[in-house]
Amino acid sequence: MNIAINTSGSAYHVDSKGYFGKFGGAYIPEMLYPNVEELQENYLRIMSEPSFQQEFEALLKDYVGRPSPLYYAKRLSGKYNTNIYLKREDLNHTGAHKVNNTIGQILLAKRLGKKRIIAETGAGQHGVATATVCALMGLECVVYMGKIDIQRQAPNVARMKMLGATVVPATSGSQTLKDATNEAIRDWINNPVDTHYIIGSVVGPHPYPDMVARFQSVISEEIRLQLQEKTGNPLPDYAIACVGGGSNAAGTFFHFMDEPSVKLVAVEAAGKGVDSGFSAATTVLGSLGVIHGSKTLLMQTDDGQIVEPHSISAGLDYPGVGPVHAHLFDSKRGIVMSATDDEALAAAYELTRLEGIIPALESSHALAKLKDINFKPSDVVVVCLSGRGDKDLETYIQHLK
Amino acid sequence: MNRIDQLFAKKQHNILNIYCTAGYPQLDDTLTVLETLQASGVDMIELGMPFSDPLADGPVIQDSSTQAIKNGMKLSVLFQQLAHFRNHISVPVILMGYLNPVLQYGIENFVKKCAEVGIDGLIIPDLPMAEYEAEYKSLFEQHNLHNIFLVTPETSEARIRKIDSISKGFIYAVSSSSTTGNNKSVDLQQAYFQKLEGMQLSNPVLVGFGIRDKATFTSACEHTNGAIIGTAFVQAIAQPGELSEKITSFVQNVRPIPQQA
Ligand SMILES: Cc1ncc(COP(=O)(O)O)c(C=O)c1O
C-alpha cells in the first residue's frame, strides 16, 4: 500500500492550481483562507513523509482491516451473465469506505497541531468514522448533521454519541447534508486556529477534493492487485460506484482514470425520478456554479439559489458533486447513470437474497445499474460496495413486502 | 468620481455603513430602507443580495436571506427596484453577496447592470483574489465599480498589503474570526485595529461583524475610519412596528446626531 502522490501529467487528476479541468478551485471567504492555505501548502508534503505513510498503512491494516476483500459474487454474476466482483468496503471497521479518509485526515490534523475536529455527515457513516478516529487519537469531535438525517439515521447518531462526539443538528434549509456542511464551515470560520475540518467527500475547496481522493485511492490500488491475482489482469472492463459527493467513486476510479479501456460508471441518486422534482441527480439536473467552496456542477434555480435535493439515501442527498466527477463527466471520460429510490431498494434486496450481503442504501444505487448495462459474458465488472446496510434496516424493513 | 471615494474625500472618521438584505422584510421594502437610512444620516449602505447558502453569515442574516428569497427577491428583481433609485439617493451603495447567483446572472451583465443603476462597490466574499485580479479587475474598473476585500485578524501582513494594492474604496476589516452576528468583544480587537492603522494602508478601513450599538461602533471607530452594522440592524427591522420608524430609531441610537463633514 502507498498513498498516491505523483499524478502529474494526468488529464483527470488535479492540476497545480487545484482544478480538475474547469472544475474545482477554492471559492472561500477570507475567514477560511488561512486554514485552507495551510492545508494547500502542507498536505502533499505531509502525506509523502515516510512516517506518515507508515502510520497510515499500519492503521489501515490492523485497525480498519485492509485490504478489504474483492469478492467474486457468483450468483449475482450468474444473474447478469457476466463476472461481478464486489469491493468489500462494507467490511471495513465502522462499516464503510469513509474511514480510509478519516484515518488519513486525523493523522494530518495531528501533524498540523490541531486539537479539535469538526465534520459534517449525511448518512452518519462519515460522522461515525470521524468520531471513531477522534476517540482513537483522543481529540475533541463535533459532528454537524441535518435534523432530518438525525431522524432517519438514528443508529449512527447513537454510535457517534457513544464514541464521545457532540452531534449538532443543522436546522437550516433542507436540514440535510448540504446544511450540515454549511454549519461545519461556519464552525471552522469561528474556530480558525485549533480546529481541523474533516470533510467526508471529494467536495469543498482545494485541496479537499484531491486530498480525500488520494486517501480513498487505496480502494483502486487494492483492486488492481486483487484482480491481477484473480484474473491475471489488473484492469476491469467496468468500475462502478455510487456518487454522493463522490469519494468512494473517486477511490474506485483513481488508478483507472488514465486507463482508457476501463469504463468508469458513476451512479447518482435519482430519488423519485430524475424529472420528478425530488431527485439528487446532480450531473443531469445541475449546471456550473459554486457550492461549498468549489466550482462544479450543482442543482440550482436559474437565479443561482441552490436547490434542495431528494434521495432515500441520506449519503447521496447532496445537490453538488465533487469537481473530479464533474470533470470526468464533462470530458466524457466517465459515464454517469442514475438510480431511483425504488431501484436502489430492489437492488438491496436482490444482493441480500443472492449473496447474503445487506448493502448500504448508497451502495445499492450502484448495484441497481447492473440491470441496465449490456455486459458481455467475458466482462470483468467491479462494483464498489461502499458500505453495509445495518444503518438502513429500518428503511429496508418498511419496504419489505 | 466614485461615490465611495467622494465620501472618503470629505470625511475620514466615524463612517457609518448599514447592511440590509434586499427584499427584506417585504419584497418592496428595499427602496424604503435605502431612503430612510439616507435620511437618518447613514454614510454608506450595503445591500445584501440574498443567497440560499450564505457561508460567512450567522443565523440572523441567513434567515433574512431565506425570507427575501421567499418574498421573490432575485438579481433581476433587485435591478428593477434599483432602476431609478439614483434620482433621490446619493449615498454610496454597495452590493454584497455570494458568487454563485452572480455567476448565473453572468458577471459581465451583472457589472454592466450595477454601473447602469448606480452601484458603487461590490463585496463578493467567495470570489478569490487571484481570480478577480486575473479575470475581472479590468472589467470592474472599466465600470467604475470598487471591489471590496475582507481581511481578518488571521490575515497575514503580506496578504493585507497585497489586498490593499488591488483594492479600491475601502478595506473591510472583519472584527474577529467569525460569521456575522457574533457577540465577540470588539474591545479585545483593538490591537488588531491598531496594527491595521499602523500599516498606513492606501485604502480606508471599515470594521464589520459584531458591531451592534453605539458602544461597539464607537470602539471600532477608534483606530479605523468607521464601521458596518448588519445583524443588529436586520434584527431591529424584524421587530413589530412601522419600518421607517424602526430604521430611524436604530440609527439614532447608534449615532445620535448625524455628523456633517
Ligand atoms: C456507504 C456510503 N456510500 C456512499 C456514500 C456517499 O459518499 P461518497 O459519494 O463521498 O462516496 C456514503 C455517504 O454517507 C455512504 O455512507
UniProtKB/TrEMBL annotation, chain A:
Sequence positions bearing N6-(pyridoxal phosphate)lysine: 98
Q: In which pathway does it act?
A: Amino-acid biosynthesis; L-tryptophan biosynthesis; L-tryptophan from chorismate: step 5/5
Keyword Cell division belongs to the record: no
**Enzyme Commission number:** 4.2.1.20
One molecular function GO term is: tryptophan synthase activity
Q: Name one GO cellular component term.
A: cytoplasm
Tell me the CDD domains matching this sequence. Answer: Trp-synth_B (cd06446)
Q: Which cofactor does it need?
A: pyridoxal 5'-phosphate
Q: Which InterPro entries match?
A: Trp_synth_b_CS, Trp_synth_beta, Trp_synth_beta/beta-like, TrpB-like_PALP, TrpB-like_PALP_sf
| Keywords, sorted A to Z | Amino-acid biosynthesis, Aromatic amino acid biosynthesis, Lyase, Pyridoxal phosphate, Tryptophan biosynthesis
Entry superkingdom? Bacteria
SUPFAM superfamilies in UniProt: Tryptophan synthase beta subunit-like PLP-dependent enzymes
Q: Which reaction does it catalyse?
A: (1S,2R)-1-C-(indol-3-yl)glycerol 3-phosphate + L-serine = D-glyceraldehyde 3-phosphate + L-tryptophan + H2O
In the UniProt record, does the keyword Amino-acid biosynthesis occur?
A: yes
Boundaries of each Tryptophan synthase beta chain-like PALP domain copy?
65-387
PANTHER family with a match to the protein in the record: TRYPTOPHAN SYNTHASE, TRYPTOPHAN SYNTHASE-RELATED
Family matches, as HAMAP family: Trp_synth_beta (MF_00133)
Q: How does it assemble?
A: Tetramer of two alpha and two beta chains.
Its annotated function is as follows:
The beta subunit is responsible for the synthesis of L-tryptophan from indole and L-serine.
The record's similarity note reads: Belongs to the TrpB family.
Its recorded name reads: Tryptophan synthase beta chain
What are the leading ranks of the lineage? Bacteria, Pseudomonadati, Bacteroidota, Chitinophagia, Chitinophagales
Gene name in the database record: trpB
TrEMBL record, chain B:
This entry's Enzyme Commission designation comes to: 4.2.1.20
Enzyme class, first EC level, given as a word: lyase
What positions does UniProt annotate as the active site of this protein?
46, 57
Gene Ontology terms, MF aspect:
tryptophan synthase activity
Keyword annotations: Amino-acid biosynthesis, Aromatic amino acid biosynthesis, Lyase, Tryptophan biosynthesis
Cite a GO CC annotation: cytosol
Tell me the PROSITE patterns matching this sequence.
TRP_SYNTHASE_ALPHA
> Can you tell which superkingdom this protein's organism belongs to?
Bacteria
- Which reaction(s) are listed as its catalytic activity? (1S,2R)-1-C-(indol-3-yl)glycerol 3-phosphate + L-serine = D-glyceraldehyde 3-phosphate + L-tryptophan + H2O
Pathway, per record? Amino-acid biosynthesis; L-tryptophan biosynthesis; L-tryptophan from chorismate: step 5/5
**Would you identify the family this protein belongs to, as annotated?**
Belongs to the TrpA family.
Q: How does it assemble?
A: Tetramer of two alpha and two beta chains.
What does the protein in this record do?
Answer: The alpha subunit is responsible for the aldol cleavage of indoleglycerol phosphate to indole and glyceraldehyde 3-phosphate.
Can you say what this protein is called?
Answer: Tryptophan synthase alpha chain
Organism annotation: Chitinophaga skermanii
The record's gene field reads: trpA
